[in-house]
Amino acid sequence: MGQSAAVWLVLLVAALAANLPYFSPRVLLVGPKRYPKPFAWRLLELLLLAALTLGLGFLLEARQGQRQPQGWEFYAAFFCLYLTLGFPGFVWCYLRKGWHER
């Protein structure tokens, strides 16, 4: 897999993973259904999926060559991008009209 394809793969996985907690009523995506699912569970799922996405990026980078050390700035930028990619799911779940009637 080329470097460009790896970057697009990580971005696609990040966009899907960032929105998944908002569309799934299950706890940790495989547990029992909760209506409505508490925000704390969604936040925990978001953090776990962010860590898995970051791990995928590190794995693909290591397969391309030597993995570069990252400072706190990288992680701050990654988390901000991840939250931005998850904004459509947040809007769908919390800001659309009638979401609380489910």
- Domain count: 1
User: pLDDT average, as an integer?
Assistant: 88
Helix content: 55-70%
Strand tally is 0
Biggest sheet architecture? none
Order of helices and strands: HHHH
| Radius of gyration using CA atoms only | 15 Å
Strand portion: under 5%
Unreliable stretches (pLDDT < 50, length at least 5) are none
Secondary-structure class: mainly alpha
Structure keywords:
membrane; UCP019883; 102 residues; 69% helix; transmembrane helix; 4 helices; elongated; mainly alpha; transmembrane
Please render the helix and strand layout as text.
Layout: H1 3-23, H2 39-64, H3 72-85, H4 87-95
Helix pairs in contact: 1-2, 1-4
Keywords: Membrane, Transmembrane, Transmembrane helix
Transmembrane segments: 41-60, 72-92
Pfam family, one: DUF2818
Question: What would your notes on this structure say?
Answer:
With 102 residues, the protein is mainly alpha-helical. The protein has one domain. Helices cover 69% and strands 0% of the residues. The protein has four helices and no strands. The chain has helices spanning 3-23, 39-64, 72-85, 87-95. Helix 1 packs antiparallel against helix 2 and helix 1 (3-23) runs parallel beside helix 4 (87-95). The chain is elongated and about 45 Å long. The chain starts with a helix and ends in a 7-residue tail after the last helix. The model has no long low-confidence stretch (mean pLDDT 88). The chain crosses the membrane at residues 41-60, 72-92. Keywords: Membrane, Transmembrane, Transmembrane helix. Pfam families: DUF2818.
